């Protein structure tokens, strides 16, 4: 007698970030659980204390979005000089919109953004870069493939008074990063994914900003390049004193890197703590870290 075998079918589950089918929750379940988490959201005083009582960059009661669509609802944020902050949360929670608002890409309805005690709320992106020392590193591949590495870097100094000043800063980037110097006169299209991301970061550094807004630094990268990029960002923070505000799809990697972490839900800050504390939080682990 032949034993009849029954084929076991497994329903594919989609979810947020990392984990197996057994540990990753559905998107709807994550959003519902995250909304429950938001019931005890941190106060402005809580956020300011995390930033060390003297925030370098602050967002106060910010309402912002795109056109008539309101994405951020009375957001508060504070980060100290030389600190790093990682924003995590469900898709559509408003993480990138915070970066866009700081840099001037959104329609701000009300609220205030200050950097170095200067109100930058209504400044244009060029002013934010040249006058307030805020640089934005896009998540998309933003290099010019047919231009050389040197020419790409020179584009980062387009707001400088002279091309000579820009060229001096480019040389400083080559002194800092041998990997780019070796390809200075080669077209950017030949670079690896990690090298392209390094070029994007270095181009933002040409204007010597104080604040780096970094949108999804690991997106599209092979695993071997992700550590390299985070090592570069760590050096910019620890050695050069840069303040970093980051959105990162790999929540675990982002929180391991960052001093502080915020969990965003539906355009509001639902939870805030040190990066290590959020990594150890079972709710954050269950919702965003895959178990």
Topology:
Elements: H1 27-37, H2 44-50, E1 57-66, E2 69-79, E3 84-88, H3 95-103, E4 107-115, E5 118-119, H4 125-130, E6 134-137, H5 149-155, H6 163-176, H7 178-181, H8 193-205, E7 211-215, H9 223-238, E8 243-247, H10 251-257, E9 260-265, E10 268-274, H11 275-280, H12 282-288
Parallel strand pairs: 3-8, 3-9, 6-7, 7-8
Antiparallel strand pairs: 1-2, 1-4, 4-5, 9-10
Task: Write a concise keyword list for the protein shown above.
globular, 22% strand, single chain, 4-stranded antiparallel β-sheet, Rossmann fold, alpha/beta, 37% helix, 6-stranded mixed β-sheet, 291 residues, disordered N terminus
Overall description:
The protein is of the alpha/beta class and 291 residues long. It contains 12 helices and 10 strands. The strands form 2 sheets. It has a 6-stranded mixed beta sheet, with helices on both faces. The chain has a 4-stranded antiparallel beta sheet with strand order 2-1-4-5. Helix 5 (149-155) runs parallel beside helix 8 (193-205) and helix 8 (193-205) runs parallel beside helix 9 (223-238). The longest helix has 16 residues, at 223-238. It starts with 26 loop residues before the first helix and ends with a helix.
């Amino acid at each position: 007698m032949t034993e009849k075998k029954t084929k076991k079918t497994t329903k594919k589950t989609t979810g947020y970030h990392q984990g197996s089918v057994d540990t990753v929750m559905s998107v709807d379940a994550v959003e519902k659980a995250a909304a429950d988490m938001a019931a005890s959201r941190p106060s402005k005083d809580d956020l300011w204390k995390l930033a060390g009582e003297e925030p370098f960059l602050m967002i106060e009661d910010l309402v912002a979005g795109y056109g008539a669509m309101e994405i951020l609802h009375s957001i508060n944020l504070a980060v100290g000089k030389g600190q790093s902050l990682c924003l995590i949360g469900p898709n559509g929670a408003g993480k990138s919109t915070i970066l866009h608002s700081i840099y001037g890409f959104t329609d701000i309805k009300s609220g205030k953004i200050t950097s170095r005690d200067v109100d930058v709320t209504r400044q244009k992106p060029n002013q934010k870069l040249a006058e307030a020392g805020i640089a934005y590193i896009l998540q998309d591949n933003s290099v010019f493939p047919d231009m050389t590495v040197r020419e790409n870097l020179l584009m980062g100094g387009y707001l400088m008074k002279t091309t000579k000043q820009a060229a001096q800063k480019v040389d400083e980037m080559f002194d800092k990063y041998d990997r780019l110097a070796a390809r200075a006169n080669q077209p950017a299209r030949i670079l690896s994914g990690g090298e392209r991301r390094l070029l994007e970061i270095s181009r933002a550094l040409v204007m010597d900003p104080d604040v780096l807004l970094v949108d999804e630094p690991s997106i599209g990268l092979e695993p071997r390049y992700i550590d390299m990029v985070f090592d570069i960002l760590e050096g910019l923070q620890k050695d050069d004193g840069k303040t970093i505000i980051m959105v990162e799809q790999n929540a675990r990697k982002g929180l391991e890197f960052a001093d502080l972490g915020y969990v965003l839900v539906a355009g509001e800050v639902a939870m805030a703590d040190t990066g290590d504390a959020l990594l150890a939080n079972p709710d954050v682990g269950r919702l965003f870290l895959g178990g």
